[in-house]
Amino acid sequence: MIERELLIANKLGLHARATAKLVQVLSAFRSNATLVAKGREVNAKSIMGVMLLAAGHGTTVLLRLEGEDEDAAMDAAAALFERKFDEGS
Which segments constitute the HPr domain (predicted)? Predict the structure, then answer.
């Protein structure tokens, strides 16, 4: 199992489009994915679960991955956060 804190840097936070991108990226991997923010823990491969976090700009989330491809999944998810979900802001 690996964990990493990630900063939500895009202006709109984890809104519907950003959440869909995150879920799509993580769903390509076999590892179990959990996202933790504001005292809540959700399945990071669930659009509804991630949306319930209501994580806005500047929020730090903890991504926890466990499985055979956890390192590759973490690299892909971290890259998405670093690219600000490809929103350019």
Answer: 1-88
